[in-house]
């Protein structure tokens, strides 16, 4: 999506041409403005794109065949083999290559010491109707997760336990925000994401006869005693409010992680990790 005119000329995103290398040295270049705009959810939604930092992210995306709109790197790093190779692959796949000054890199990433490489990727969501858990497959569902760091960490953890994907129930934070992508450490490209309203999730659960274990501070069962063999979804609650009553009532079991000490609950991402690893241990797949 890169303009074929010389660097720093006025360009609209529509006029950018893919598969080309473009030099950008001015922070006032309109392409820089477009890229910076991806920090806002409304712009990500409109363009169906998102920004991520680091060469690893770009290589993860390439490996999993995600569409990469742009690879952006600092001119001073242009001669690094790994960057040149990644740029060649992005270009071959029809993406654009932006070779930029350090100031431009800082401006786009909004950081004083930015990563050498940034990428602009196409967002992907799997439709809920296509999710049909088979025996032994585990999905994670999150009720109104608000914190992008929690969401990214959960994606990474879901990846580590080999969960099939993450279902975002209700009004959740955007998994494609810079913070969530950063916290996922590349797992954003490896863990399928599904969006559903609470009603859609509950209907889907009924239609697929999915067995759901919810985690709840008023849980009746110690999470270590749950029989995870037939369980297809582990459902986690919102950071402030926990699970809605509707969701809690729909769970086959509500599990509690017993706690010592004075804290009233565990962090959402930590508790997700605890339960997922127990579920996998019980299923003896790790
Ligand atoms: N004030 C909230 C409440 O009353 O539920 C606390 C929510 S907690 C920070 C966020 C989510 O993490 C919970 O909804 C639950 O899914 C999970 N969680 C945290 N600690 C837990 C525990 N000890 N047992 C079971 N689930 C827990």
Describe, in plain words, how this protein is organized in 3D.
- With about 290 residues, this protein is of the alpha/beta class.
- It is built from 10 helices and 12 strands.
- It folds into 2 domains: about 120 residues, 60s Ribosomal Protein L30, Chain: A (2-Layer Sandwich), CATH 3.30.1330; about 160 residues, SPOUT methyltransferase, trefoil knot domain (Alpha/beta knot, 3-Layer(aba) Sandwich).
- The strands form 2 sheets. It has a 7-stranded parallel sheet. A 5-stranded mixed sheet has the order 1-4-3-5-2.
- Strand 3, helix 4 and strand 4 form a beta-alpha-beta unit.
- Helix 3 crosses helix 4.
- The protein starts with 20 loop residues before the first strand and ends with a helix.
- The N terminus is likely disordered.
- The site of S-adenosylmethionine has 18 residues, from helix 10.
- S-adenosylmethionine binds next to helix 10.
List the topology elements.
Layout: E1 21-24, H1 30-37, H2 41-47, E2 49-53, H3 55-63, E3 68-74, H4 81-92, E4 96-100, H5 102-109, E5 117-122, E6 139-143, H6 148-161, E7 165-169, H7 178-184, E8 193-196, H8 198-207, E9 212-215, E10 221-222, E11 233-236, H9 245-250, E12 253-256, H10 268-282
Parallel strand pairs: 1-4, 3-4, 6-7, 6-11, 7-8, 9-11, 9-12, 10-12
Antiparallel strand pairs: 2-5, 3-5
The structure holds S-adenosylmethionine.
